[in-house]
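Lesson 9: reading folded outputs for more than one chain in a single document. The general rule is that every protein is listed as its sequence immediately followed by its structure tokens, and records are never interleaved. Here is the first one.
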Amino acid sequence: MAEKREGEPFTRIDVHEAKEMIDAGDVQVIDSREPHEHHDGHVPGSLQIQHMATLVQADKIARDRPVIFICKSGQRSAVAAEFAAALGIEDIYNVEGGHDAWQAAGYPMETED
């Protein structure tokens, strides 16, 4: 159940809502974890932008569709979502529980070769 909290520029979603949005298409998924974490397993098709690199890699973030941020548990991705909002991006989602919850739900993970 999506939740928009006062003072937060993003909407909190669970992994099931994230999966539905991804399956429906036309969203960008950003993995806010470290490169080695992304390498070991991530949401298929996600783009790795470390949370503290969000501002310097702003040119890689979509502005024409919803952007879903995900990390290990939801903390770093929330920071990244805040940074994206500071850039003027408005259609932002943070996955509560992150990759831990994604994997626990049995959803597919992709690894780098």
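And here is the second record, again sequence then tokens.
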Amino acid sequence: MAQLEHHLIELDTSPGISIHNLTPQIAALLSASVIQQGHVLVFARHTTTALAINEYEERLLDDLKAHLRHLAPPDQPYHHNDLHLRPGVPPDEPMNAHSHLMAMMLSTSEVIPVRDRQLALGTYQSLLFLDLDGPRRRTIYCQIWGE
């Protein structure tokens, strides 16, 4: 009979763009799970965050950050940053249109197969969480389902 589990991962991020390897946290959830075969859904619960599966290698991460900044430079005149023209903006609202645009070019979720309580990732694959507007306290939702 199929079962379903729900988990939250909380993470404090660094200023600017920060990239975190969630693979160990997800592996720990699976290790403690009763579900041996199935899938895990990982969902980034913020509009300026994203998820990706790729290699967690420092120089590649630096390249990714530079590429994202090139696609959505923070110093451009974005309409979203006209805070005085937006109703109900809190006093601590950052000018972060570039972070929203970066997030929209990426993905908010990943579904990964689970086999024998382990992620069925390839040799160099890791689950990456990208905070595009840190530092912040972030929450990632995980749903494990299967048998």
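What the second record shows: Residues 27 and 76 are 40 Å apart (CA to CA).
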